Amino acid sequence: MNTLFDKIWDAHVVDTIAGGQQIFYIDRHLIHEVTSPQAFDGLRKRGIPLAHKERIVATADHNVPTINQDQPIGEPLSRKQVMMLTTNCDEFGVELYGLGHPYQGIVHVIGPELGITRPGITMVCGDSHTSTHGAFGAIAFGIGTSQVEQVMATQCLLLKKPKKMRISVDGDLQAGVTAKDVILYIISQIGTGGGTGYFVEYAGSAIRGLSMEGRMTVCNMSIEMGARGGMIAPDQTTFDYLEGREFSPKGQAWDDAVAYWKSLPTDEGAIFDKELNFRAEDIQPMVTYGTNPGMGMGVTERIPVESKIHGAAGLDKAMKYMGLQKGQPLEGMDISHVFIGSCTNSRIEDLREVVRLVGDKKVADSVTAIVVPGSQQVAKQAITEGLAEKLEAAGFEFRQAGCSACLGMNEDKIPAGKYCVSTSNRNFEGRQGPGARTILASPLTAAAAAVSGKVVDVRKF
Q1: What is the residue range of 234's domain?
Q2: What is the rounded CA–CA span in Å between residue 66 and residue 342?
Q3: pLDDT tens digit string along 330-343?
Q4: Whole-prediction pTM value?
């Protein structure tokens, strides 16, 4: 009796060496402009070719501007990073989905939407949120720059097998509660170190009831609880999403693939090193109040006066940075910025939810609200469906594809001292720009904040 994780991991072990480490084969390697330059340079200096360039997928996302993408990039460092990626891919023969390419976008958005991400495979990227792809029943995780070079040179990594954890969420979610609220709730309960040393499988009726976009949101933030990665067993929802995608198998190859994928779910009675169980009914729309994703609470609750998870010093430091007080509610608090996007929540389903909630309302005069699609394909679909037009009519800025204001690595920064309700995955100090104050939330809660000018309970909205 094996878990989903065991089945995939064991099938990719090339060899086991002394000390318990294993040579682990990688099926797909995703790269972008931030962590690849040093790796390419290392290969160049050693005179080593790429082991399997056909298994590498490259795109530009972190440093790209989200306006005027047909013009030269204005920020010098961003321009240099993107140019280096282009030069390296040309030299080493790697296909690049760069600016202007119809497949360009956030690396963790384009993999699934193109059918590059599939059940049963192993995927890595020099980016911590690679766990997103685990939503399809894949082993996917982020790696460091030296490991990026290692995969480029050998298509393998030297690893020690992580422990296994299963987190089950059963029951029915309340109206207005989304996948983002589910994962923020879990992290708030176990802390940012609760998953350290584990690879997590998410299970339970509430997880199975999520769309693929929702499942990707949950797996995306696995790293925020310290886990090596997260995954969800493939099922009919997975197969329906992948069928017909650009790089998905076709014809008999599709039938053969599905037959294999159906063998992957965890066997009845398989043992995990740790099990956690949560009730869907206990989850309400979530917001964060501090400077890590574990500092989260239901939107109607108050900031805790003390915290065993974060400690007195950690809570005090967070309150000072955020300009908040212990015991304070966030509901009703004024905000000035809203960001809807990132590899967590920039897919077409997220944009549809925002438009549905906003209806004929307008963004508050006091709020700057931007919506950034996760890929060129999402942007094109949003335009085709009329979503972009409705968002702009409501007062949102509809941008071009990229990581945008998820992180202060491009031009879309939040001003110092300002509060931004953000659908991204991290609320660290300075994450959205020096001094920026981030409140993580779902697309629904962010949209409600945009039109209200305040943090609001979307259920009342």
Answers
A1: 163-282
A2: 12
A3: 999 999 999 999 99
A4: 0.97
